[in-house]
Amino acid sequence: MNASAVPAPRYDDPAVFGRVGVLMGGTSTERAVSLESGNGVLEALRSRGVDAHAVDGIPALVDEVRAGKLDRVFNILHGNRGGGEDGVVQGLLQALGVPYTGPGVLGSALTMDKIRTKQVWIASGLPTPRFQRIATRGDVRAAVQALGLPVFVKPSSEGSSVGVFRILAEADIAAAEAFARDYDGELLAEQMVQGGEYTVAILGDLALPSIRIVPAGEWYDYHAKYHADDTQYLCPGMEGEDETAIRALALEAFRAAGCSGWGRVDFMCDRDRGPQLIEVNTAPGMTSHSLVPKAAAQLGIDYADLCWRVLEQTLPGDAA
Question: Which of 52, 80, 231, 316 meets the CB 3.0–4.6 Å disulfide criterion with 45?
Answer without folding.
Answer: 52
